[in-house]
Design brief:
binds cytidine-5'-triphosphate; 22% strand; Rossmann fold
C-alpha cells in the first residue's frame, strides 16, 4: 500500500518534445498501483502513440472527444468526474491557455472542466514561450484556482540552448501528484518538522566524525507527512538523496546546526519526527588546516552534543507531538522505553539494526512503536512487520496524525 495504490489518475499528455517522458511517468504511476486513464491531445499524437500508453496501462487510451468510446457513455465528462487526480504532463502553452480560459474544445479540456479532483500541471516549453506574459498570466490564473504547478526547471532545451522551460524531474511530478491527492488529509493545515540523516562533526576541513545513516527513513517520513496534507519542514544532515517535492528543505551539517534549525522550525508546529541519527559527540577542537599524518598515535577528545529531542521537550513541553527513533543493537524494549520517558517523546519507533532488512541504508525496516501508557490512539507497544520504508513511514505518520488530533482536541 502506498499513496497511489488504487487511485484513479487521469494522465493528460500534450504535444511537446517532452511527450516521450509521459510514457515513463505513466509506467511509474502504474507500478505504484494507480489506475491510469491516458488522454492524448491531437498534437501529442504527433509525438507519441496511443499504443504505447495502452500497452503500459492495459487500458483504453482516450484521444478524440467525438470518437466512439464503447466503455464510457459520456467520456467527455466521465473521466474527470471519476478521477482522484488529473495530471497534465507535459503541459504545453496551448493547453495552459485552453484551461485558463475554460475552453471545452478537446477531451482533456472537458475533463479538467468536469473534474472536482485536484489538477497537477507540469509545463514544458521553449524559454521565450514560458516567459511570455500570456503564458505567465495563464499560469497565474490556474494557480489562483489551486491548480498545482510543478516546474518547469532550468536546463537543456531541445532547441540546443539552456534555459527555463524543461520538464521537471518525474520524481517531482509524482511527488506533486501524491501531495495533491493528500491535500485534505489527516494533517491538512498542520506544520510538521522531520529530521533526517546523520550529522557530520568536523575534525578539520576534510574529515569528520559521522555515522552510517542514509536518510531514507527520514525522507520517506517527510514525504508521508506531506502526503497527509502537512506543511513539512525537512531538516536534513548530509545525505545523497534528492530533495522531496513540496517540502521546505533546511540543509544542516552538524548536530548544533540541526538543534538550532529544529528548535526554530518546531515553534508553532503540530509535530516533530526526529528520524535523524544525531552524533552524540563532537571533537572538542576543529583544526583550520588539514591534519597531517605522523607516526604517533592520534587522540581525539570529544564533547557531548545537545540532545535535540530533549531540548524541544524542555522548550515546548507537550505543545507538539514528539516522535523519536531508537536504532538499537539489542535491548530494544528497555532502551525504547527509557528514551520515551527521558526525552519526553509521545512515541518511540525502535528497530534492531543488526536484523536483516532493518539496518542503515536498507529499503525496508521492522519497527516497533512504543507509546506512553494510556495513549488513546493505539496500543502501548505496536509491532509492525518488515515493510518498505515508505509504508513504515505512512503508518508512523498515521499514528502521529492521531496523536496530533488527540492532543489538540
Ligand atoms: N536524538 C536527539 N539528539 C541527540 C541524539 C539523539 O534528538 N543528540 C534523538 C534521535 O533523533 C532519536 C532519539 O533521540 O529520535 C534517540 O536517538 P539515539 O541515538 O537512539 O539515542 P541516544 O540518546 O543518543 O542514546 P544512545 O546513543 O546512548 O543509545
Amino acid at each position: 500500500m502506498n499513496a497511489l495504490t488504487g487511485k484513479r489518475v487521469v494522465l493528460g499528455v500534450c504535444g511537446s518534445i517532452a511527450s516521450f517522458k509521459a510514457a515513463q511517468l505513466c509506467s511509474s504511476l502504474v507500478q505504484l498501483g494507480a489506475e491510469v486513464d491516458v488522454i492524448l491531445t491531437e498534437s501529442a499524437r504527433e509525438f507519441v502513440t496511443p499504443l504505447t500508453f495502452q500497452a503500459l496501462t492495459r487500458r483504453t487510451v482516450y484521444t478524440d472527444i467525438h470518437e466512439a468510446m464503447p466503455d464510457l457513455s459520456s467520456a467527455h465528462v466521465e473521466l474527470g468526474m471519476r478521477a482522484d487526480v488529473v495530471v497534465i504532463c507535459p503541459a504545453t502553452a496551448t493547453t495552459l491557455s485552453r484551461l485558463a480560459h475554460g475552453f471545452a474544445d478537446d477531451l482533456l479540456a472537458c475533463t479538467v472542466l468536469a473534474t472536482r479532483a485536484p489538477v497537477v500541471i507540469a509545463p514544458a516549453m521553449n524559454v521565450n514561450m514560458w516567459n511570455h506574459p500570456a503564458t505567465q498570466a495563464n499560469i497565474a490564473t490556474l494557480t489562483a484556482r489551486r491548480v498545482c504547478q510543478v516546474g518547469p526547471v532550468a536546463g537543456y532545451l531541445a532547441e540546443g540552448i539552456t534555459g527555463m522551460g524543461r520538464l521537471s524531474p518525474l520524481e517531482d511530478v509524482i511527488g506533486a501528484v501524491r501531495q495533491a491527492l493528500g491535500r485534505n488529509g489527516a494533517l491538512a493545515g498542520r506544520c510538521v518538522v522531520v529530521t533526517a540523516g546523520g550529522t557530520h562533526e568536523p575534525l578539520d576541513p576534510v574529515r569528520f566524525v559521522g555515522n552510517r545513516s542514509s536518510g531514507k527513513m527520514g525522507y520517506a517520513l517527510a514525504e508521508a507527512a506531506r502526503d497527509a496534507g502537512a506543511d513539512v519542514t525537512l531538516v536534513s544532515g548530509p545525505v545523497s538523496l534528492p530533495q522531496p517535492w513540496g517540502v521546505t528543505f533546511v540543509q544542516v551539517g552538524t548536530a548544533s546546526q540541526m538543534a538550532d534549525a529544529t528548535l526554530a522550525a518546531s515553534e508553532g508546529a503540530a509535530a516533530l519526527i526526529m528520524a535523524a541519527a544525531v552524533a552524540d559527540y563532537r571533537p572538542v577542537s576543529v583544526a583550520d588546516q588539514k591534519m597531517k599524518r605522523s607516526g604517533d598515535a592520534l587522540r581525539i577528545e570529544l564533547t557531548p552534543n545537545p540532545d535535540i529531542l530533549a531540548s524541544v521537550t524542555s522548550r515546548f513541553g507537550d505543545a507538539l507531538v514528539k516522535v523519536g527513533f531508537a536504532a538499537e543493537t539489542g535491548e530494544v524494549t528497555a532502551e525504547a522505553t527509557r528514551k520515551l520517558h527521558a526525552k519526553g517523546a509521545h512515541l518511540i519507533c525502535a528497530n534492531d539494526v543488526t536484523e536483516a532488512g532493518s539496518g542503515f541504508g536498507t529499503d525496508t525496516n521492522r519497527v516497533t512503536m512504543f507509546a506512553r501508557g494510556g495513549d488513546p490512539t493505539g496500543p502501548e507497544v505496536e509491532h509492525l512487520p518488515t515493510l518498505p520504508k515508505d509504508e513504515v513511514a505512512r503508518l508512523i505518520v498515521a499514528r502521529t496524525a492521531a496523536l496530533v488530533t488527540s492532543l489538540r482536541r
